[in-house]
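Running log. JK asked me to keep both predictions on one page so they can be read side by side. First protein, sequence followed by its tokens:
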Amino acid sequence: MSSDFEGYEQDFAVLTAEITSKISRVPRLPPDEKKQMVASVEKELEEARELLEQMDLEVREIPPQSRGMYSNRMRSYKQEMGKLETDFKRSRIAYSDEVRNELLGDDGNSSENQRAHLLDNTERLERSSRRLEAGYQIAVETEQIGQEMLENLSHDREKIQRARERLRETDANLGKSSRILTGMLRSASCREMCAHKCSPGIP
């Protein structure tokens, strides 16, 4: 089950990075390309929501004692999703304002707008980088946990095998002791019978 969740995580990380990149490009595109880009982002946002739903279902199937770590990750992903949707709305507002300014012949302090866009784009790229780094760290930690579990299972298997060997040895020793005891009892019985027959006065 956890492998399915991790697969959804990787898909979500790739998809949100693509959405972030597209959102940052919307204000700089020509009108026709902007419409296409907006439609593309809307579609990918819907795919991201569906991935979150799938991940949420996977988390509900995890035993309660192991669910905490996955629930924390889900909260982080949902917050990131909300931030993406907010950025997209702002981008569309900026696009609408730009169209209006073009129609009115107002450049709207274009140099300041460009600097603001550059700052926004830099911030988005930094967030994407942090998400990818966090995803990589999660993958490394998951691999380490899996390796530790395999090592523990191997140790447990060795302990079980040694216990079985000791049990077989004990059974063999018990069988040998039983045979020796039976032989001793038979010898004692034979000696008693011989002594009885050889005693004087006994016909």
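And the second, directly underneath as requested:
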Amino acid sequence: MSFRWLSRPNASSGMGVADHGKNAFMELQRKKVHRYVIFKVDEKKREILVEKTGGPAESYDDFTAALPENDCRYAVYDFDFVTSENCQKSKIFFIAWSPSTAGVRSKMLYATSKDRFRRELDGIHYEIQATDPTEMDLEVLRERAN
């Protein structure tokens, strides 16, 4: 599952976004087919791949366990919660995962590609930049969503 550059590539990273990645995001956003989508930059192919999707029944722990300990990733997560007024709500988070243990080259590649990639995903409610699991803890999502 990959998406090659259909429009002009980002000048600094050369990464582009094609329909498949947008479709995976739309399936998460509108059809609730996925709880999360994790994206990986393939530098050699100069494209962003859909690395993994999680089904609607998967938990936040399943999502965080799917992120690599020592490499960067982009992810979108569909966070369901109940408001203080007892209303069921859903907010979509864009997470730029860049652990401190990742290599400098990987961090730079993801940093230079992020803004363009993020703009292609219309309908994101919140963005989190995390270098450590505590920065994207479930409680952080709850605080941001309310």
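Observation for JK regarding the second prediction: Confidence is low (pLDDT under 50) at residues 1-12.
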